[in-house]
Amino acid sequence: MSTRVFVLVVALLSAVLAATAVGGYLLWTRGDQGAGAMIGGPFTLVDQTGRPVTQDTLKGKWSLIYFGYTYCPDVCPTSLSVMSQAMDALDPALAAKVTPVFITVDPERDTVEQLALYHESFHPSFLMLTGTPEQVRQTAKAYRVYYRKAENDSATEYLMDHSSITFLMDPNGNYATHFGHDATPEAMAETIGKLVGK
Length: 198
Ligand SMILES: [Cu+2]
Description:
The structure is a single chain. This protein is an alpha/beta fold. The protein folds into two domains: 3-30; 37-196, Glutaredoxin. Helix content is 39%, strand content 19%. The chain contains six helices and nine strands, in the order αβββααβαβαββββα. The chain has helices at residues 3-30, 75-89, 92-95, 112-119, 133-142, 185-196, and strands at residues 44-46, 52-54, 62-68, 98-104, 127-129, 147-149, 160-162, 166-169, 175-179. It has a five-stranded mixed sheet with strand order 5-4-3-8-9. The longest helix has 28 residues, at 3-30. It is globular, with a radius of gyration of 21 Å. Copper (II) ion (CU) binds next to helix 2.
C-alpha cells in the first residue's frame, strides 16, 4: 500500500469512527423521551421555611416548576398566579398529587424570609426555593433555564432577564411537559389533569 492510499484509508476510518461516536452520543442523550430527557436533575436548595430540599424531596409527587424572582414586576407574579389558579381548578384529589415549585434566580435578594413573605400571595402548597448563587446556578443549568442580571448601577434595584417556562415533572423527577408564558390556568389544569389522572 502506498503512503497516499494508507493516509486515505486512515482518514476514512477516522471519519466513520467519529460519525459513529456522534450518533451514539445523540442516541444516548436523547433516550426515548426526546429532548425532555435532558431537563431536570440533582439539586440542593432550601425552602421558604429554611428546610433543605433536593430532587428527592420532590419525588413521589408531580411537580410544577417555575424559575423567577420575587422582585419581578410582572412576568413572575403572572406565572405564579396562573399556576395557583391551575392548582385551584384541578380536582382536589389530583391537586394533592402536584407540588407547585418556585425557584429563585436571584438568590442575593430572595432570602428564606423574602420567600416566606412572597409565599403568602400564592397557592399554599407552593414550595419556594433559594440557595447559594452556585446552588441556584446548578439547578437552573439542570433545567436548561437562562437567567442574567440586567445591567444596572444599583446593587439592590435591578431586573433579571430569565426564561419563563413552567415545567411539569413526573413523580420520578422526569420531564413530562412544559407550558409557555401564554398558557391559561384552564389549559394548564386540563393538561395536568390528563397526565396526573392517567
Ligand atoms: Cu420574572
